[in-house]
Amino acid sequence: MKIQNAFILILMAILAAGQAEARICPRCGRDHLSDQVAPPKTEPLKEEPKTESEPVKDEEPEEIVLSVARERFFAPSVEIANEADKILDRLEERYGKPKTWKPFPIYYCKYKGDGVAGYTLYSAPVVKEVVVYEKFETSVGGTLDHELTHAFFFYFLGSNFDLFLNEGLAQNSEYRRRESLRQTVYRRYSAGEFWELDRLYGRNQYDSRLLIYHQGFSVVDYLIGRGGSQWFAAFMQDLVRTNDIDKALRRFYGYKDLGELQTAWRQYVERGQDRATVQAVR
Predict the structure, then answer these.
(1) From CA 22, how far away is CA 45, in angstroms rounded?
(2) What is the pairing mode between strands 68-69 and 126-132?
(3) pLDDT, position 49
(4) Which of 162, 144, 156, 130 is nearest to 229 (CA)?
(5) Which of 2, 79, 174, 240 is 20 to 30 A from residue 274's alpha carbon, by CA?
């Protein structure tokens, strides 16, 4: 499969549906085609600044051979397949096993110098592909874990669910960057950059400052600290089933609404974001 041609087909389909701004992530290039839990809110996106990466010349992409077939995916090498299995096994241990699973291809492609690290493409009811624009060695614990978490939860929940929590979960899987993410959260929180949670939850589109990534990571980090990973997974299953965030928060965490969660989360950030100090769910 030629990646360039695949992108052209994907972009044509998105533009035809009038969803380009709402669906394309300005940081990672992911295309979220499935229905979200909450209806989208309309807010215009600004052009996202690119990362300071060295651009590469446009070249005809090489044919990528997926020579390794595993139960859950297809990969271009045994090394990549072994690591992907470890990541998915770790996710199953943390959150539980999906009821259904359809294997999908994992592609490693040459970085294009545009700030795009990778993406996961969904087309209900399956994950179509996972693409990583990064060297394998540096993607482990970062981009590869991030994208496979998107694929995992698509099957685990049978939905692409809410974008804010979706990115928060994927960021949470980037164990190599977790502490630096907490530092970024504290810096941005101290600078007064973060929004009210009800402005991000149900938004269904990316903001130009990528708050949906950093704030999403921190809120998910806090909730997992309170009840653990499997408790959070049960919370997400209830949320997808009811499509009622306040009801799910009351049932699993004792908060009457997003406002109460926001107050508790702010205290978590101010006190150093240490999971070990978070009061457990009773």
Answers:
(1) 8
(2) unpaired
(3) 35
(4) 156
(5) 240
DSSP symbol at 24: B
Residues 6+ apart with CB under 8 A from 25: 31, 32, 119, 206
Alpha-carbon gap, residue 96 to 143, rounded angstroms: 22
Task: Give, as one character, the DSSP assignment of residue 39.
Answer: P
Closest by CA to 188, choosing from 206, 210, 169, is 210
pLDDT: is 146 or 50 the higher one? 146
Sheet strands (E) in 5-140: 68-69, 73-75, 104-108, 118-123, 126-132
Specify whether the CB–CB gap between 95 and 117 falls below 8 A. no
pLDDT of res. 20: 35
Sign of CA dihedral 235, 237, 240, 243: negative
Strand partners, 73: 104
Taking alpha carbons only, the member of 218, 225, 229 closest to residue 183 is 218
What's CA 26's distance to the chain center, in Å?
Answer: 13
CA–CA dist 102, 7 (Å, integer): 22
Q: How many CA atoms lie within 13 A of 191 on its CB side?
A: 8
Task: Please compute the mean of the pLDDT values over residues 49-64 and round it to a whole number.
Answer: 42
Name all domains of the chain by residue range, CATH numbers in brackets.
3-277 (1.10.390)
Question: How do beta strands 118-123 and 68-69 pair?
Answer: unpaired
Give 144-186 pLDDT, tens digit per residue: 999 999 999 999 999 888 999 999 999 999 999 999 999 999 9
**The pLDDT of residue 25:** 53
